[in-house]
Amino acid sequence: MSSRLPPLNPLRAFEATARRGSVSAAARELNVTHGAISHQIRALELSFNVPLFERGGKRLRLTPQGALLLPAVMHAFAEIAAATAAMTRPATSGELRITCVPALLSFWMIPRLHRFTEQFPDVQLTLVASNDEAHLHSPDVDVCLLYGDGNWGDCWVRLWSRLELFPVVSPTLLNMRPLRSVRDLRDHVMLHGDDGREWNTWLAAADATDLQRGRQHFMSDARLSTEGALHNQGVALGDTITAGSLIARGELIAPFDLTVPANDAFFVASRNEVRAAPIVRVFIDWLFAALESDPMPELQTSARTIIRSRMSRPEGPEQKSTANGFQPVSSPKNRRLEGPQKRKIKS
Questions:
Q1: How sure is the predictor about 340, in pLDDT bands with cuts at 50, 70 and 90?
Q2: Full residue range of the structural domain in which residue 281 is found
Q3: Which pTM was predicted?
Q4: Does residue 201 sit in the same domain as residue 300?
Q5: What would the mean pLDDT of 288-305 be, rounded to a whole number?
Q6: Is residue 337 part of a domain?
């Protein structure tokens, strides 16, 4: 039976030409010359001893014989493509165990997790909130998303994202207690997600290392300090990855135009022997694709939009404060930090 089947290349030329309606378009799609397509169609017609196209118009039209052949050819090519995909598709089923920086897990990964599960419904995930690099060598963990310097030996490591740090505060707290300048931070509770080094870095960039600080709370990680800011407990340091969606939704505001680079970055890491597993590869590929396809919002634009929406009526330049003493963030060109302002650092 196989001896009665026409050759594959002429069938491809016929299908592309019929679908695209012109020899030139088919030639571009198949990356061959116009003459090659014409030659292959003619060879197919000779093998059947019937014309497949009516010639003479601007757009080729199928003859009755061509119209009879086309659905069978398209169906055959679709079946071949499906079988090829099935043969080459990685085995993406089973259990995958992930550890992730707590703030990143709560505020970035979990809100997007449905995209992965919809694409790979046969993968069961076990998620652990942790930034402990010791998990890299645990047989119970497949992939780690860590915040650090990336210098972890004897494993596969790839930079996932650098990030910038900046103060964040809830709109409710900002309405009750203004932040017109960096000096107003002394009237707020300062929330730390580390031992204080990150706030020190930001204050140094703002020329405010001598700031007289009020109350301070120290928490084990940035997720807790961000949660504290969400619940009106004080001002935390957010970052461009985990705080971006919270700002876009209006749950947090970035009151100042100054950002500083974080001391470390987010890295994806895995044991070398685990990295080659198809289920691990597809999750790591998804992590990078999700980051690339979902850019973070422009922080100060978001903040100004949110603040304006909370004001009950427009006010003149001489009355920028509301009745409760809140002053909205002005445009960057008109804003000044107390003391010389450092240039905004971009990653």
A1: very low
A2: 94-160+267-293
A3: 0.59
A4: yes
A5: 63
A6: no
